[in-house]
Design a protein that fits this description.
heterodimer; A: mainly beta; seven-stranded mixed sheet; four-stranded antiparallel sheet; 11 strands; 0% helix; 56% strand; B: mainly beta; globular
Chain lengths: 112, 115
């Protein structure tokens, strides 16, 4: 299936731990994103990579570090997890110009 | 600074009737607008889009209207079906930005279509 896939779907961990979320797209898109949906349901951009280069880096704590080994993958590593990091994280990709984002199904992160 | 706003958190309509979802924006640089539909435990899926050079775009039962002077867009679903029950997000971007072209989302409207 052509899609944006992210793993894991659910992630429960304790404060202070380090965790990673993986994302892969086989749509051939050049640009990939991480979005965060907080408790108020807003979808907010965190990072964007174009062909493995970081092009958008919103005001996100530096405990969050994206890594793009190739243009089909964009992983999100989070150090020293805090309670406020609990949210749903969505990976997405798109082509350039007037084209829509294609989202993965999200990773629900719960920090206890 | 909420640049895209959906002031109705929820909307309930009868099957077969029209659903109208509204969205307002404040950034005059936005020139590309999209609607996404989201079911629980899934990612948002693209529904329909419109660029600022148009004021209407239609795709089957879905029509998006753009009023640039009012900075307002709306999504019409006719006829509404129970399977349309989902959260609908309005989103906007400014193509003049870098090739990253971020989407700014509204907070969503939960549509419930009753049989």
């Amino acid at each position: 299936d052509t899609a944006v896939s992210q793993t894991p779907k659910y992630l429960v961990t304790q404060m202070g731990n380090d965790k990673s979320i993986k994302c892969e797209q086989n749509l051939g898109h050049d640009t990939m994103y991480w979005y965060k949906q907080d408790s108020k349901k807003f979808l907010k951009i965190m990072f964007s990579y174009n062909n493995k280069e970081l092009i958008i880096n919103e005001t996100v704590p530096n405990r969050f570090s994206p890594k793009s080994p190739d243009k089909a993958h964009l992983n999100l590593h989070i150090n020293s997890l805090e309670l406020g990091d609990s949210a749903v994280y969505f990976c997405a990709s798109k082509q350039g110009g007037f084209s829509p984002l294609h989202f993965g199904n999200g990773t629900r992160l719960t920090v206890t | 600074d909420q640049q895209v706003k959906q002031n109705s958190p929820s909307l309930s309509v009868q099957e077969g009737r029209i659903s109208i979802l509204n969205c307002d924006y404040t950034n005059s640089m936005f020139d590309y607008f999209l609607w996404y539909k989201k079911y629980p435990a899934e990612g948002p899926t693209f529904l329909i889009s419109i660029s600022s050079i148009k004021d209407k775009n239609e795709d089957g039962r879905f029509t998006v209207f753009l009023n640039k002077s009012a900075k307002h867009l709306s999504l019409h679903i006719v006829p509404s079906q129970p399977g349309d029950s989902a959260v609908y997000f309005c989103a906007a971007s400014a193509l003049g930005e870098t090739s990253g072209s971020r989407l700014t989302f509204g907070e969503g409207t939960q549509l419930t279509v009753n049989p």
